[in-house]
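Researcher: Here's my situation. A collaborator sent me these components and asked whether they could plausibly form a single complex. I don't have experimental data yet, so a predicted model of the whole assembly would be a useful starting point for our discussion.
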Amino acid sequence: MTMQVIQHIELGSAAANIEFTSIPQTYTDLYLLICARINENAAIGEAVYITLNGSTSNFTNRYLQGDGSSASSSTLTRYLATQTSNQATANTFGNAAVYIPNYTSSNFKSISTDSVSENNATTAYQALQANLWSDTSAITSITLVAGTGDQFMTNSSATLYGILKGSSGGVTVS
Amino acid sequence: MTDEVLTRVVIDCASGEVSYIPLTDEEIAEREALAAQAEQERLEREAAEAKLQADREAGIATLKGLGLTDDQITALLK
């Protein structure tokens, strides 16, 4: 297996959306790492939503989430990940790992995420999200939307990796 | 939220070019729709959780009325 950086962005100023366009179609899977802080002041964590190829249609979702005290499961359309908000410990960012297998195939696309909103207190969110994009198009662009009505703060980052199925049995990261 | 201009950062994976572009009116409207949808789903989720809790409490009261002890009810609900 080979994992290669496609693109990396660290925000020099706040942005409402982070968008990767012209994604190469030469990999097998996509792996997206998000490390963000969102300017939401009413809650410890905030949601990140996803748009694929500019489309907000044909998404279904189920998530399992813990908040430091209890666990819950529900649905929230296009909910990709939880991240740290401006209500949490200063200079702290969330983490999310998003895996999209077979992104160029003509099948529907599954998107699996595990994410946390870091906070030095009892309340912090950990979530597993399962999204399905019921579209047969190959994925050429991914948009991350800071919700709801918020922005990704300066120094938030996102790294898009391409993963190639290998035959050697080893792993190469470049 | 302030009245600052909302922007999106676009990373072209083919060229590596990074652009900060103001959101269009359509994109702003889409964000507002997303916020409204999330709020609606939150209200539905909270209503469902409240009903679940109310049904649970009513069920426990019914079991007690039938003569079950607290420990028996706890064992049943485990």
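Model: Some features of this prediction you could bring to your collaborator: The radius of gyration of chain A is 16 Å. The first strand of chain A starts at residue 2 and ends at 10.
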